[in-house]
Amino acid sequence: LGEGVVGRAAAERRAVETVDILHDPAVTLSPDARALIEGAGSRAIAAVPILAGGNVLGVLALYHPVGFQIPREEAEFLQILAGHAAAALENARLFMESRRRQESAETLASITQTLTGSLDLQTLITQVADAIQRLLGCDGAAIGLVAADGVVRLSARTGTGAEAFREVIVRPGEGVTGWVLQHGEPFFTTDYEHDPRISPAFARGVRAAGIASILSVPVRLGDETVGVLHAFYEAVVPMAADDVARATDLARVVAVAVANARLFEEAHAHEAAATRAYQDLKAAQDQLVRAEKLRALGEMASGVAHDFNNVLAAILGRVQLILRRVEDPTLRQWLSIVERAALDGAKIVRQLQEFTHIRRDRPTQTVDMNAVVKDAVEMTRTRWRDDTQSRGVDVRLVVELAPGPPVDGHPAELGEALMNLILNAVDALPEGGTITTATRPASDGGVLVSVADTGVGMSDAVRGRIFEPFFSTKGLRATGLGLAMVYGIVSRHGGEVTVESTEGAGSTFTIHLPPGRLRSAEASWPPALPSEGTARVLVIDDEPHVREILAEILRVQKHEVVEAALGVEGLIRFREGSFDLVMTDLAMPGMSGWQVAQAIKAERPEVPVVLVTGWGVEVPPDQLRQNGVDRVMTKPFRFEDVRDVVASFRPKR
Ligand SMILES: Nc1ncnc2c1ncn2[C@@H]1O[C@H](COP(=O)(O)OP(=O)(O)OP(=O)(O)O)[C@@H](O)[C@H]1O
Ligand SMILES: [Mg+2]
Known about the structure:
Blueprint lengths: L3 H9 L3 E3 L12 H10 L1 E11 L2 E11 L6 H45 L4 H16 L3 E7 L5 E8 L9 E2 L4 H9 L3 E3 L10 H9 L4 E9 L2 E10 L7 H85 L3 H28 L8 E3 L1 H11 L1 H10 L4 E7 L5 E3 L1 H17 L5 E9 L5 E7 L6 H4 L18 H11 L3 E7 L3 E8 L5 H5 L12 E5 L3 H13 L3 E5 L2 H10 L4 E5 L7 H11 L5 E5 L7 H6 L4 E4 L4 H9 L6
Parallel strand pairs: 11-13, 17-18, 17-19, 19-20, 20-21
Antiparallel strand pairs: 1-2, 2-3, 4-5, 4-9, 5-6, 7-8, 8-9, 10-12, 13-14, 14-16, 15-16
Helix pairs in contact: 3-4, 3-7, 4-7, 7-8, 8-13, 9-11, 11-13, 16-17
The structure holds adenosine-5'-triphosphate (ATP) and magnesium ion.
């Protein structure tokens, strides 16, 4: 502009003439232009600007040999021609513009329809990114929404820049997004590297993403800027006011759509929360009613069990006495039938007591529920496989074990509970199907164990009563004590058993056991005993009955036992023989169990020490280890407890 004759005509918006452009003092020329003209030879020039509404659209120029005087009429003709050209060009421009307006209005209308039709925020922002590209014809697009914490998350991007802006989080004032957020105004630049509004670090990022120009507009809701729309261009593009206007129009639509989607989401969340609260309340109420009913039943049953035990003891005792005196084979056979029946009755009473007898003693051991599940599956194998196969029915049992934390409990009881659930599942599959036993960690750090079947399921009425003792739908062959026992055992472990069932589609029983308290100490136990075989055990207890029964149980379990009545004696014995395991009482005259444990660990730290204590003694696991105790066994202990304690020092299968 301003250079040469054409440049001057455009700059000064008037006709300009020269007879020799190379020697006209009024004309400035760059060396390049001068060289070009010298080669061309046409040096007399007349130039007329094409003007429309005060804007220069172009220039018409006539070229003649040097020294040629342009005739007046030719100059006038040129003026008229420029006037016509201006009108034609202006018309064409207006036509193009109105067509583009119309197109973009149509695009915007269809985008508006899409956006306002979408109430899901995530879908919406993806659609917005597409819409920006469609409307502005840019190479890439992004939308960022202000989150609750005030930062912007660039939520959806497409095309150029999509990768670079993937996980971008922007604070007000940072980068283009931050600028727009802070000022609430559109932002455009083709030179972000030198744009004082943008930091150099941001500029580097943008360039690396292959972006040359950016147009950003705020998404405003009332006075608040709730987000930013970005259009990215790979080339340096001139930005017309028109583009900014269109982007702003789109931002207005987006603002409304986002507000709607957010309101909808909020309403939805409220509704879901209310429904959940109601369901929780109802479940809690049902649970309460059921627990109360089962407690009452338990009290009744425990009275029955007590009386029955006396009755059965009398029958059994007499029958066994009579059996010693009677020789007649027929009578003896009848009597042994009575004896058998009394023993069966005693078994039922024992099962009933499993339900009623909610013992107060603490679960004593760390139990790996996966091992319990595996054992229960093995022990019921004849029932779910062999028996069903012989009936020509196909029952599949799937075991899905997830590694989980140990729980505190009695493995034998928990195994019993699981076996009951598996047997019920088999019963529920008269025509075959699948039983799935699974373990998975619970959210409270405990364990969930489930037994699911694809069987007959149950009605709501049945489901409400299944844990009651003697409730059964299986007729005379069943006692209806299975689930009552499960309930008792799980309750005693501080856990919960729940059931989901659909008639005709199957049932899922889930046992939730709380996290084990002995966990941290026990989790790190190295196996100290060989995987099988006899162990040499030193038993130290000042109470002869307890010591003898513990020794006896260990011997029955094929271990070698040495007994000691006092701590000091125990230590002497310990030095005499090589022991695999030491079991010591806690409270003894002279040396306490703690002191014994420490003395033993001082000599042979690899020998495990079990502290045998009275009920309810609770010692934090870390304190146990510090004092040289590897685990605790609570009195009174049962045969299985002793077995499991020993087994816990063997490597896990
Ligand atoms: N997996 C299951 N699918 C469908 N119904 C079940 C399932 N488990 C239990 N039930 C229902 O619950 C009732 C009670 O079960 P529970 O185990 O207490 O007793 P039972 O199986 O009938 O008898 P028992 O276990 O003493 O032999 C069953 O009779 C049955 O109606
Ligand atoms: Mg059963």
